Amino acid sequence: MPINGVFTTNNGSADPFDGGVFSVSGTVKIVGVPETPVSYRVFLMEPLSKRVVRTTISGADGSYSFQHVRAGPWLVMSDDPTGAYDPVAVTDKYGTAE
């Protein structure tokens, strides 16, 4: 909830730069037959500077969500902590209104 134009992050801290009324969500999966959802680190990044804005771990079902962010565009990246798979990134990801 905005207070004087300052939005909060997922943990409740103020974010005057990247906060907003949008959320960015998706699913992390290993491509194959069948696709396998995985619990990996997910980074929400500013696309031009590659600055990490938020991080989370996807759930057991592969789902992730970054709440209370500006509309975007965003760069979302996930990496495999074991190193078995290359990192994967999605560019020009836009948030949806909360």
CATH class: Mainly Beta
Indicate the overall shape: globular
Please report the distance between the alpha carbons of the first and last residues: 10 Å
Oligomer type: single chain
- Give the proportion of residues in helices: under 10%
Largest sheet: 4 strands, antiparallel
Hey, roughly how much beta strand do the residues contain? over 45%
Query: Helical stretch count?
Result: 0
List low-pLDDT spans: 1-7
CATH topology: Immunoglobulin-like
N-to-C series of helices and strands? EEEEEEEEEEE
Computed Rg: 14 Å
In total, the number of strands is: 11
Give the overall average pLDDT: 85
Tally of separate domains: 1
Class based on secondary structure composition and strand pairing: mainly beta
Strand arrangement within the widest β-sheet reads 7-6-9-10
CATH architecture: Sandwich
Structural topology:
Layout: E1 7-8, E2 14-15, E3 19-27, E4 29-30, E5 36-37, E6 41-45, E7 52-57, E8 63-69, E9 74-79, E10 88-93, E11 96-97
Antiparallel strand pairs: 1-2, 3-8, 3-11, 4-5, 6-7, 6-9, 9-10
